[in-house]
């Protein structure tokens, strides 16, 4: 034999090739998804007039008044593909929880509309096919001291009416925040001024607890219920030792409801019939150094003026 066994093997076994970096071939796919995301956002129906329950916690009435009074240009929030995709995933989770999980487990009651035929039925969802879409109970809160109008009211839609008479607010939650929720909810008892409890000075879990409980409390007020549940479904495998889902029981709290009304009322008073010459609403920031103030376009003017 002229060749050794080793040399023969060398011929049979293919030579190692240099590893080629992974070629992404999804550009065309991704750009089509981005186009769809942008289009579907444009197709969303306009929001009904009024102050929305979901946005009221973060709202600073003083900023609203100062921006209008001084004509400060506030850059419109831009929605890039990453943000739009996050929203789309959030919507999908919400749909999963409301129209499949809660529908099939017969936990929520109300009006269900068939997405094909348009038929409506009341009570429990007939099946968990996802074809029946829950019609969320609508909330409209008037503001004592402010004339009744579409502009000066609080509006929103609650996620669910539980069969036991409680209300439900269903949220999806990133894994990084999920573990901190218990601590966040435990700290709610320490809040004595819901008007200034907004913003994010603290952890995301704390902010979630504050804003989601505030939101639910406004629904409790609008639908005249005493108790509700904020329910969290994690967006992924929960960390070891953590439950598959979490729920927190929230009771009605007049202080939270009054804070929401006070916010709208103070903007109405500052608006002063369109002149923005009325008294400035009080500050929600403790100092110009707080996280919220640092992001505020009128922080200098805000702290230069005294509270009315
Ligand atoms: S600095 Fe804070 S309190 Fe002042 S306007 Fe801005 S957000 Fe409101």
Q: What layout of secondary structure does this protein have?
A:
Elements: H1 5-12, H2 27-43, E1 51-52, H3 53-56, H4 61-70, H5 81-104, E2 108-114, E3 120-123, E4 132-135, E5 138-141, E6 154-157, E7 160-162, E8 167-173, H6 175-178, H7 181-186, H8 204-222, E9 227-234, E10 246-251, H9 254-271, H10 291-294, H11 299-304
Parallel strand pairs: 1-6, 8-9
Antiparallel strand pairs: 2-3, 2-4, 2-7, 5-6, 7-8, 9-10
Bound molecules: iron/sulfur cluster (SF4).
Structural class estimated from helices and strands = alpha+beta
In the CATH hierarchy, the architecture is Alpha-Beta Complex
Number of domains: 1
- Distinct small molecules bound, one entry per kind: iron/sulfur cluster
Percent range for helical residues? 25-40%
Largest sheet: 7 strands, mixed
What is the total tally of β strands? 10
Mean pLDDT: 88
What is the radius of gyration? 26 Å
Strand content: 15-25%
The CATH class, by name, is Alpha Beta
Total number of helical segments? Answer: 11
Question: Low-confidence stretches at least 5 residues in length (pLDDT < 50)?
Answer: none
Output the helix-strand order: HHEHHHEEEEEEEHHHEEHHH
State the CATH topology: Lambda Exonuclease, Chain A
Shape field: globular
Distance between the termini: 103 Å
Describe the structure.
By secondary structure, the chain is α+β, with helices and mostly antiparallel strands. The protein has one domain (56-304): Lambda Exonuclease, Chain A (Alpha-Beta Complex). It has 11 helices and 10 strands. The strands form 2 sheets. Strands 2, 3, 4, 7, 8, 9 and 10 form a 7-stranded mixed β-sheet that branches. A hairpin with a 5-residue loop joins strand 2 (108-114) and strand 3. Helix 8 packs across helix 9. The longest helix is centred in the first third of the chain and has 24 residues, at 81-104. The protein is globular and about 100 Å long. The termini are far apart. The site of iron/sulfur cluster has 13 residues, from helix 4, helix 10 and helix 11. Residues 60, 62-63, 66, 283-285, 292-293, 296, 298-299, 302 line the site of iron/sulfur cluster.
